[in-house]
Structure formats: C-alpha cells, structure tokens
C-alpha cells in the first residue's frame, strides 16, 4: 500500500490521515482501497476507541496515535495533521476510515494540490448531484444545500459543498492556519474552510460519489442541528471580523497553530507482524 518506488507526484511526500472512533470493521477495507505507490505515510488517530482499532492500524502499517478519551472529530484531525507535518508530509489527505468516501480518489486530490495550485481540495458529493443516489438522507441533503448557499452568500465564496469530510491540504496551509483555535467537534471542518476563505487560500473541488450504508459512522439529527448552528455562527463570525465589529481568534494570523496542539500520544502496543 505504501509507496515503495520513487515518489510519483512531483517528488512530494504524501500522507493520508485517518481520524476515527471504533472503526475496526472498516479500517482495513479503507486502507486497501487506496491506490498503491502514491502514499508515503498512513496516520491513524484512534479517538478514544475501545474496539482494537489502534492495534489493527498498527498491523496495517499506520503510524498510530491515540486520545485516551474521546476528544472529538476536530481534535483527532488536529493530532493527525500535526503528526503529518512532523513526519515531513508535503500533502495531507484526510480519509474517513469508515469507508464513507472513495479512497481511490486520493491520487486525484493530492495531484490537484501538487500540480493544480490549490492549497485545499474538497471531495464534493454535491458537485455532480449524486448525493441522493448514493444514499444521503433527504434531510441531510437539504440542510447541506441550505447551509452551503447561506455560507457562500455570507463569506463571498462559491463552493458546492462545505460539509464533506474528504479533504486534501498543502503543507503550507496546515502550517499557517491557526487551527488550534478551532473547535474539537465537527464544526472544526467548517471553521477551517472559513479561515482558508478569509486568508485567501485557493480551494478546489473534485466530484466524489456519496456512499451511505448500514453501520457507517455519520452525524445524527441532534448533533447535526448543533453542527448547523455552529456553521451559521462561523460564517457570521467571519463576516463580523471582516467588518471590524467583533474580532475572532479564528481569523487572526497570529492565533495558535498546530505546533501548539498538545493532545494525542503515540500508540504503544504489540509490534506489527
């Protein structure tokens, strides 16, 4: 799975970060679907799981880091991105280890960062209108579309989707954004995009099929409402910051970076066989 030949994408070091909680049933399937000879580093963040995901990740060749207690989806990303930077990654792709997104698109997304001039690339489920045919619940589709239209209007952007969890990043954007200022829950994703838009980092999109199935991990209704409110607050905070009405540390270039994030420890377990 990991690249054994010379690096194929402009001699850049490519890392895949997999943040997850109790994903032992899908982790191996997800990693196996990543095309070979592209990825140099696999980094799995076990966010307080209890199902042996950390042990499995190590057997599958991942660098494994753990949160002793569940810290949240955003916190797991912070740990993963910090470690990817520490290990020398030039491009970082986040892949959900629950097999919700197509790992086969990792080369395309990484290539857009390496060759396309983008600091962030999103795998959009709405770009080609395939979300509903892929099983996305209607309520989630409508909320996704509504929030995206609202956020584009308030933040002056033109993205097809803010709420995908499939993302690729340049080293530069992960080093420079004040990501430790962000929340530790699902709203982290939205805050990151708002920061990127505010500071002018180019964002690209690629069409990604939706893949909903029984047993997958997805945000449910009540947490989804909390997430939606958080997205509205994020866009409003950016607008207020730009207008000078209420300054936010999210949009301060001197805010805390990933180098200031201290959570997450290396997993110590049985050696990979």
Q: Keyphrases for this structure?
A:
globular; 273 residues; 8 helices; eight-stranded mixed sheet; alpha/beta; Spore Coat Polysaccharide Biosynthesis Protein SpsA, Chain A
**Strand segment count:** 8
N→C terminal distance: 16 Å
Q: Do you know the CATH architecture?
A: Alpha-Beta Complex
**CATH class assignment:** Alpha Beta
Tell me the number of helical segments per DSSP (H or I, 4 or more residues long): 8
Strand content is 5-15%
Shape annotation: globular
Cα Rg: 18 Å
Order of helices and strands: EHEHEHEHEHEHHEHE
What low-confidence regions span 5 or more consecutive residues with pLDDT below 50?
none
Mean pLDDT: 92
**What structural category arises from helix and sheet content?**
alpha/beta
State the helical fraction.
25-40%
CATH topology: Spore Coat Polysaccharide Biosynthesis Protein SpsA, Chain A
CATH superfamily: Spore Coat Polysaccharide Biosynthesis Protein SpsA, Chain A
The major pleated sheet works out as: 8 strands, mixed
Strand order of the largest sheet: 7-5-6-4-1-2-3-8
Count of individual domains: 1
Describe the overall structure.
- This protein is an alpha/beta fold and 273 residues long.
- The protein has one domain (14-253): Spore Coat Polysaccharide Biosynthesis Protein SpsA, Chain A (Alpha-Beta Complex), CATH 3.90.550.10.
- Helix content is 36%, strand content 14%.
- It has eight helices and eight strands, in the order E-H-E-H-E-H-E-H-E-H-E-H-H-E-H-E.
- The chain has an eight-stranded mixed sheet with strand order 7-5-6-4-1-2-3-8, sandwiched between helices.
- Strand 1, helix 1 and strand 2 form a beta-alpha-beta unit.
- Helix 5 (138-155) runs parallel beside helix 8 (221-243) and helix 7 (187-199) packs parallel to helix 8 (221-243).
- The radius of gyration is 18 Å and the shape is globular.
- The two termini are 16 Å apart.
């Amino acid at each position: 799975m990991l690249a054994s030949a010379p690096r194929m994408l402009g001699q850049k070091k490519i890392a895949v970060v997999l943040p997850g909680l109790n994903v032992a049933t899908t982790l191996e399937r997800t990693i196996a679907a990543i095309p070979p000879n592209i990825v140099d580093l696999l980094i799995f963040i076990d966010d307080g799981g209890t199902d042996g995901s950390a042990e499995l990740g190590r057997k599958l060749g991942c660098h494994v880091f753990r949160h002793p207690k569940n810290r949240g989806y955003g916190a797991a990303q912070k740990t993963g991105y910090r470690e990817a930077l520490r290990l020398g990654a030039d491009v970082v792709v986040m892949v959900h280890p629950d097999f919700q997104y197509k790992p086969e698109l990792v080369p395309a997304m990484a290539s857009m960062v390496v060759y396309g001039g983008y600091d962030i690339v999103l795998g959009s489920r709405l770009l080609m209108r395939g979300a509903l045919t892929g099983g996305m619940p209607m309520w989630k589709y409508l909320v996704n579309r509504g929030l995206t239209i609202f956020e584009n209007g308030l933040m002056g952007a033109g993205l097809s989707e803010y709420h995908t969890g499939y993302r690729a990043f340049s080293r530069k954007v992960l080093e420079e954004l004040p990501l430790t200022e962000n929340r530790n829950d699902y709203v982290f994703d939205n805050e990151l995009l708002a920061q990127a838009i505010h500071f002018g980092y180019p964002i690209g999109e690629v069409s990604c099929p939706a893949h909903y199935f029984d047993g997958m991990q997805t945000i449910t209704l009540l947490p989804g409402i909390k997430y939606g409110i958080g997205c509205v607050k994020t866009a409003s905070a950016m607008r207020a910051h730009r207008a000078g009405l209420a300054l936010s540390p999210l949009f301060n270039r001197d805010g805390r970076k990933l180098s200031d994030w201290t959570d997450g420890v290396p997993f110590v377990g049985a050696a990979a066989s």
